[in-house]
Amino acid sequence: MALRDDKVTLSHGGGGKAMRDLIEEVFTAVFEPPGMEDQAVLEAAALAEPGARLAFTTDSFVVTPIEFPGGDIGKIAVCGTVNDLAVGGAVPLWLSAAFIIEEGTEIALLRRVVASMAREAAAAGVRIVTGDTKVVGRGACDTLFVTTSGVGVIPPGRAMGAARVRPGDVAIVNGVLGDHGAAILAARGDLALSTDLQSDCAALGHLMADVLAAAPGAKAARDLTRGGLASALNEIAETAGCGIEIAEEDLPLRAEVVGVCEILGLDPLYLANEGRLVVFVPEAEAAAALSAMRARAEGAGAAVIGRAVEGHVGQVRMRTAFGGARIVDMLVGEQLPRIC
Amino acid sequence: MKEQGVRIRVRGQVQGVGFRPFVWRLARERGLRGQVWNDPEGVGVELFGEIGDFLAALRAEAPPLARIDAVEAAPFEGAAPAGFTITPSRGHGAQTRVAPDAASCPDCVAESLGRGGYAGGRRAGYAFTNCTHCGPRFSILRGLPYDRGETTMAGFAMCPACRAEYENPADRRFHAQPIACPVCGPRVWYEEGGAEVAGDAVAEAAVALRAGKIIAIKGIGGFHLACDARDPGALTALRVRKRRPAKPFALMAREGDLGAIVALSEPARAALRAAAAPVVLCPALAGALPEAVAPGMVEYGVMLPYTPLHHLLLEAFGGVLVMTSGNLSGEPQVIENAEAREKLAGFVDGFLMHDRPIARRLDDSVLRAEPAQVLRHARGRVPDVIALPEGFGGAEIVALGGQMKGAICLIKNGQALLGHHLGDLDGALCFDEFEKAVADYRALFEHRPERVAVDAHPGYRATQAGQAMGLPVAEVWHHHAHLAACLGENLWPLAGGQVAAIVLDGTGLGPDGTLWGGEVLLGDYKGFSREAHLRPAPLPGGDRAAREPWRNAVMRLDQAGLGGAAEAEFAGLAVAPLRAAARAGVNAPLSSSAGRLFDAVAALLGICPVGMSFEGEAAMRLEALARAGEGRAELVLPTAPAGPVIDPAPMIAALMAARAAAAPEALAFAFHRWLAEAFAARARALVEAGRARAVVLSGGVYQNALLHRLSLAALEGLPVLTHAKVPANDGGLALGQALIAAAQLSPGPEST
Ligand SMILES: [Fe+3]
Ligand SMILES: [Mg+2]
Ligand SMILES: [Zn+2]
Ligand SMILES: [Zn+2]
Asked: What residues sit around ligand 3, an ion, with C-beta below 5 angstroms?
């Protein structure tokens, strides 16, 4: 064990032996093949099929706390990028991972995060093939920031896109909403909330593959990350040029999430998720898509929540429990009170 | 052969109100020759002969629904006709006005009831009797010009008898577009369980009401849900079915029957009898009706029957009816028969239906007579216009108003048209109505806006809609708009100088990024500065704090150093997480809202601490409690310490200390007086220092009649401007927005 320190110091970012020790002992574990060079060299076979297309995405991850019930920043960093590829219809294959580490961060924490990434990548069937680390001074970042990029392949003949959603298509989510956002809030020590909530963080590549096998006519999918279901649906409505109608009573919600939202005055429709997606499928394939989801652990709570409709183009409306309908907006910055 | 004559131009609300036949009669009585016509500018008249007192009579004897803004007379030379005639309309549309819907006139009431000289008449018992002095106008209008073919009466072909009245200038139905009779006009029926009940519709409906049933009644601007206001079982059923546990119900009764349930002052009688036929809030007579009519309130909202159908029904029923709007919670009133059957079936036992379509959804207007206030600007008041103050140019501006009480305003040609109440724009159908209203008013008034004015809050749906219009956008701060709306309705000139505005409100975005709502602003149409304000407190849970008074109480108790009391006070509620969220700044924006201070005090006095069942409930109940305590003025809460920040903490501490001994009524009253005096002192100082020329009272909290009175008392001796024509709440916001945008386009010195 060359690495003696228990906290990251600026010398770990200096480019010398300390840095090499940190990378070799902590980070290499996550990369495949181990000992890879700065650049990943990838076999092109998967891309060789005529008509196949490359999908490429990137995302940065910041979350407080770094570890929370049901996950940590590493797990999110893998799942988030895998999910971005999956909802576009791609088979996720390779990831890169870059770390910005604040001076003073516990090395034990880094080890846990990295182990979590390795575990998640293996489960999702992707390889983390290249990466980078930087150490910055105290206060220049908050403990640890992770950026992952992902490459996947979209098989020939598959075309997913919000523009393809048409009135009548059915919207399905793969489970209860807002668990991640609520769990993160509850995990913040300063909020005095005690719950058993776990983040919903999960890689959805396999689930998407099953859905697409069961419902080959699936039109579009979106992962429900920042801005939650509300933002994803608004994006789709706008791009598709149709309306979307959902029903309040059909939304899968855990009572504890509703409870946290009530105390904090938040709307679960806007809470972030890290293992949830919405998929729009033609009505005829809705039942098949639903059972495909329910057959997997990460889709056990799947539910039909609404459909695309003619009229109110670009707008999402929710039938309330009282029979009325309210407009579900895209989140505009911070939600400031409007009741006058 | 040419002769010397006089050409007269009459401007104002002079079309569709029987003005031309009136001129025709005046001219004939005086033996004058000439002609009268409608045109885009109003009514034109040419007279030949000795005109004598014609011009004086024109103003003095004008028909009831006419409103003359200007009469211009000039000599001219022309060929004189042999007699006096009404000639066809000239020109097209522009600038002409459509009259608001008007309550049945005494003649039409008598005719419908078959009373007096109308006994046995052809319209006895007929529910759609009207004339040029009364009846539906705006609610049946589909387009201009205001002719039968452009109304929802287009499908009813006039019978010869009606046609004769319509064409006779001496008849009160000359050119009454909705003229109708049992032979040719709309019909009414009563249905239960999807089938028409045989027999007289009105009589059957009255029987149902007497039996404790709830029925839907199609009116002028939408459906009402009605039941016997004296029947506790029916009231309970209506509250349960409509999921409306506590919001006061409006009542309808004949004037003679109203005296038994409310104290009717002369101003209230005048307001009730006006052609607009609004709901008027009047002091309730204790015990006159079951508590369920208006739980916790000391006023009832009452109105008189305003259509022949209402008159016939109340004659047959003989009591007091609850008349609450027929809608699903959060949705606008239902207006179509099929829609009513679909949406209201779960609420009602029967439908009193008719087959005259409603073109425009219009809620009942709501007023208070003392002090004169408009709480909801709707049926009977639109599309009336108000004149703009001196100094405003001819810019055409559309202003889109607020979020919770949507209403738009158009200004053009020195006039402002404030549109009708549209409700909470998050409601999908309310937002549809909003979009329709924008297009509709613009088309009706041939309005070509060069600028759109919106609230500065980016989350208001109206603001988002305004930004999508493709016009230059004027973003207006919420409380500046309240200030300007009050200046505007009081005709304060553009160059009239600065005023001290006490704006007590819910929440509105302020320029510092916090939410304002308890402010003393010094300003005019062009700008403002914040001179004093309530000490801000967090709103933990954002808008949720506006529904759960305890949240505000905890924050104000903490500020008063009485945090320990909060746990006991609100045992079982999540006090600790609430505080933690406020401390951590998680959805807990700071606000100086006076409305939320009302909520806090209400919660401390035991008024719906955990949650309100309708917007404003806590403040309304606190006002009711305080009015009951008006006689017990001995309790005085400590004056807020001097300075620009009005800190309620010492007041809260004193209130908590006095709670054990003092009656809640006395405490509620003392709080009202404390608030009125704290703000009045700051406004008075600005006037006395020569910095402000008058005091303005605005913002939704000023719907509170007691606070209004106490503020006026505390400002005695100063010029005070209040809202009497335009709502002090967000229903008046659009007028202020439009004026501020217009002021930006008007030449003249910048505000200092
Ligand atoms: Fe306001
Ligand atoms: Mg992304
Ligand atoms: Zn009449
Ligand atoms: Zn007729």
From this structure: B 105, 108, 131, 133-134
